[in-house]
């Protein structure tokens, strides 16, 4: 189940996770950026543990990767400040690549998410990437197109071999991150909108799968929330995921869009597998208790359809 522990410690750490990212984004100095990311990291490690040995392996992996990324980041910041060496700026970018999980340092993301609790996996794929992703765009936009190309290929091809729902979502996040990176290059508002819609759709998807006990594509279970979440991630109209992709397309050059669209087309294959497993291998599970949340989701997506009409015709 997607359970959130409302103990005072967990609540305090949750606030620090959010506050650390906001401190990094709003800071005007490199030291402030680093302090914010470290505050976010150590608070999130406590949330990952949650008093369960189930999370020990992904916790260690996440700690090692993020710590290494932080060391590379602060080392490069110090040398860039004093010596202004170009190759040190490259180290800075590599440190952010490590923390985000961008090629060639992407392999830790699926391994951590697959063995984590649903809520932890969702945060790893969304909120934990926000601050370093923003600063990657501010530092170097020249490497973004190359990164987008590799992430689209990895996300589309890697997801085809996944039988785990969490694994599928991990590789799908690579494709969505490519869309966000392209959007961030040309409009911060478009990036924030895409990030919010993707985060909402992913948590709806995880919540539905958690409530129905669907951890693999072969599981015999059905979830309306999971279906709505995956439809939003697919970006089909009239769902809000379509509006977020539309805004990126309206604000970005043709080449980057072609690459992202190709990745999205490939990712439709494992989304289709999810639909197949849910409709043909399952019965209706727990549908009554999801109806209220589903109704809210449908209202939001109807509003999204209205916004699409406004954007296109007004």
Describe this structure in words.
Keywords: Electron transport, Membrane, Mitochondrion, Mitochondrion inner membrane, NAD, Respiratory chain, Signal, Translocase, Transmembrane, Transmembrane helix, Transport, Ubiquinone. This is NADH-ubiquinone oxidoreductase chain 2. It is found in: Mitochondrion inner membrane. With 314 residues, the protein is mainly α. The protein has two domains: 7-138; 141-314, no CATH class. Helices cover 77% and strands 0% of the residues. The protein contains 14 helices and no strands.
Number of strands: 0
> What is the gyration radius calculated from CA atoms?
19 Å
Distance between the termini: 44 Å
The mean pLDDT is: 77
Overall 3D form = globular
* Count of helical regions: 14
Secondary structure class reads: mainly alpha
Share of β-strand residues: under 5%
How helical, in percent, are the residues? over 70%
- Sketch the topology as an H/E string, one letter per element: HHHHHHHHHHHHHH
Biggest beta sheet summary: none
